Amino acid sequence: MLQQLNPVERAVLLLREVFAFEYAEIGEMIGKGETNCRKIHSRAKSKLHPDEQIPLHEPEQSEKYVQSFLKAAHTGQFHEFVNLLAEDAVLYSDGGGKVRSAVRPIHSRNHIAQFITGLYQKTAALSASVQIDRIPINGESGAVITVDGQPFTIVAFQIQESRIQSLYLMRNPGKTAAYGIPL
């Protein structure tokens, strides 16, 4: 499959997917910019899996999952939300190298449950002014967690067969800044 890619695409794909390098680091290695590396990575993935362009949400279902997440995040009781996860669900976190986040994807419902429960406990201890709200993300429902009025984490879901297949936590301040004003 990798033979379908040119040498630069192969290098970017392997450095990102296998060795989990950040785009800026990859750019330094191959002499390209960070943004260029992101695009090369995206194109390489689409060449390898052209028919796997799965939308983040099924619009008619996404609100149910967001509401379950909001309820869990407000109460700290994640059991009902975790039951909406597929058994082989994956959690992706992006801190952009600027804030702490999970370096590698977290696989399985049980590991995700442990991670989000721990994240909830840490976030609750940060400040008395933690707020969680529903927001639109690319035309779909998602959530923003703000701490002391600043966006802390953006949450989005990929839903397949009535289960959350992927959970995305965006923590990169350069990307979360656009969501600074909750609805």
Automatic annotation (TrEMBL):
<dbReference type="InterPro" id="IPR036388">
    <property type="entry name" value="WH-like_DNA-bd_sf"/>
</dbReference>
<dbReference type="InterPro" id="IPR052704">
    <property type="entry name" value="ECF_Sigma-70_Domain"/>
</dbReference>
<dbReference type="GO" id="GO:0016987">
    <property type="term" value="F:sigma factor activity"/>
</dbReference>
<dbReference type="InterPro" id="IPR013249">
    <property type="entry name" value="RNA_pol_sigma70_r4_t2"/>
</dbReference>
<feature type="domain" description="RNA polymerase sigma factor 70 region 4 type 2">
    <location>
        <begin position="1"/>
        <end position="48"/>
    </location>
</feature>
<dbReference type="GO" id="GO:0006352">
    <property type="term" value="P:DNA-templated transcription initiation"/>
</dbReference>
<dbReference type="InterPro" id="IPR013324">
    <property type="entry name" value="RNA_pol_sigma_r3/r4-like"/>
</dbReference>
<dbReference type="InterPro" id="IPR032710">
    <property type="entry name" value="NTF2-like_dom_sf"/>
</dbReference>
<protein>
    <recommendedName>
        <fullName>RNA polymerase sigma factor 70 region 4 type 2 domain-containing protein</fullName>
    </recommendedName>
</protein>
<dbReference type="Pfam" id="PF08281">
    <property type="entry name" value="Sigma70_r4_2"/>
</dbReference>
<dbReference type="GO" id="GO:0003677">
    <property type="term" value="F:DNA binding"/>
</dbReference>
